[in-house]
Amino acid sequence: MHRLGPVVLPEEEYDPKRALRAAKLRRPDTAAEPFAFAIRDATLLDMPHCRAIYNHYVANSTVTFDEAPLTQAAFRSKFTRIQKEGNPWIVAVSPGGEVLGYAYAGMYRDRSAYRYTVEDSVYLAPAATGRGIGKALLAELVRRAKAAGRKEIIAIIADRGAEASIALHAKLGFKEQGRMGRVGFKFGRWLGTVFMQKSLK
User: Fold this and answer.
1) What is the per-residue pLDDT for 187?
2) Residue 157: beta bridge partners?
3) Is residue 12 domain-resident?
4) CB neighbours of residue 57 within 10 Å
5) pLDDT above 90 coverage of the chain, percent
6) Which of 9, 62, 133, 149 could form a disulfide with 161 if both were Cys (CB 3.0 to 4.6 A apart)?
7) Which range of residues forms the domain containing residue 90?
């Protein structure tokens, strides 16, 4: 997207009102243009970008309870595990290939009786919020988790600082199943969690 520069006229012809009118005429109608992105399967090549997005939230928010940035090795290991489980990991990319956000579903617990239940994670680049990308990622993740044979999908969300995530899950049919208080401590304050669930049957 090109930013509109100032309208500059020769000094002897400069007229502020005329310049303002010209600027308005040249301003692109961005409101009428939908934000373009595509969703595809993630690859190992996407992991540095996913890691950068995630570590932003580690350092600046309580949406994740991690307090130290994840290493590239740790992120690659997580991606490999999700693939071995047969669960989806997807990314949203701009027309130029920039990773705007990602989502994955991992096994809810490692005990075998939980094999039909997954837990979701959705993260967006800071500049990509408010554009419908999170909703599109979560909807596609739910679809792919169902296609993979999962029956239930869980979201465990911080009870402070993640109100947008709670609202997003609710819009896509997740129901709140309960809350736990004071189970995490980050940035000098206690945090609880909200459990939400959607049936994929």
Assistant:
1) 98
2) 194
3) no
4) 17
5) 82
6) 62
7) 35-199
